[in-house]
Amino acid sequence: DTEVTQTPKHLVMGMTNKKSLKCEQHMGHRAMYWYKQKAKKPPELMFVYSYEKLSINESVPSRFSPECPNSSLLNLHLHALQPEDSALYLCASSHQTGNTGELFFGEGSRLTVL
Amino acid sequence: EDQVTQSPEALRLQEGESSSLNCSYTVSGLRGLFWYRQDPGKGPEFLFTLYSAGEEKEKERLKATLTKKESFLHITAPKPEDSATYLCAVLITDSWGKFQFGAGTQVVVTP
């Protein structure tokens, strides 16, 4: 069982909706990540939080807004998305950035934008 | 430019037929190389971390090795439950959290 929990597992939203994806880890990790994965493609990095501060934003459109309320929680707020944003959104954590530590992924949230 | 290439793209094996997957990399400095297994519609599951050339790690039917240019994931006597996509990722020195993933190898093991 993964120790990174993502909710919801599935989300369908219209282009005018506002929704949020949530991620929680209790491994004491200080780095948390959002990745986007399209079918048959590798995960693409979106954001990295290190010690609850945004350290990397891979030029992600502003319709995706990350938030890290505390060291265990990571949110991704979604607004005015496009159909091409439909994908599997993966949350991951690691002991800390810049380290050799591996990523631990959640099961993902499957997003469909109509 | 940093690059991670996996081959083959897809691999179909009979149960018990051993094989190897390749992950070749060209990076400015390697901090670590990671292997993951991903089942359809699920998040990647961590398998191994390799840090330096000559290192080997084993887990059940899987064995990962590392040289200065590539890593191999050997699958010995695979079973149908080993069917998955296997991803390798590298963490580059001074990349501060940017893991670069290969495109993956999709493995299907038939009974």
Task: Please give a structural write-up.
- The complex is a heterodimer of chains A (114) and B (111).
- In chain A, strand 5 (44-50) and strand 6 (53-57) form a beta hairpin.
- The termini of chain A are far apart.
- The relative contact order of chain A is 0.34.
- Chain A has strands spanning 4-7, 10-13, 18-25, 31-37, 44-50, 53-57, 64-70, 73-79, 87-94, 104-105, 109-113.
- Chain A is mostly beta strands and 114 residues long.
- In chain A, strands 2, 4, 5, 6, 9, 10 and 11 form a seven-stranded mixed sheet that branches. A four-stranded antiparallel sheet of chain A has the order 1-3-8-7, with no helix packed on it.
- Chain A is globular.
- Chain B is mainly beta and 111 residues long.
- In chain B, 0% of the residues lie in helices and 59% in strands.
- Chain B has strands spanning 3-7, 10-14, 19-26, 30-38, 45-50, 56-59, 62-66, 70-75, 84-92, 99-101, 105-110.
- In chain B, strands 2, 4, 5, 9, 10 and 11 form a six-stranded mixed sheet that branches.
- Chain B is globular.
- The relative contact order of chain B is 0.33.
- Chains A and B meet through strand 5, strand 9 and strand 10 of A and strand 4, strand 5 and strand 9 of B.
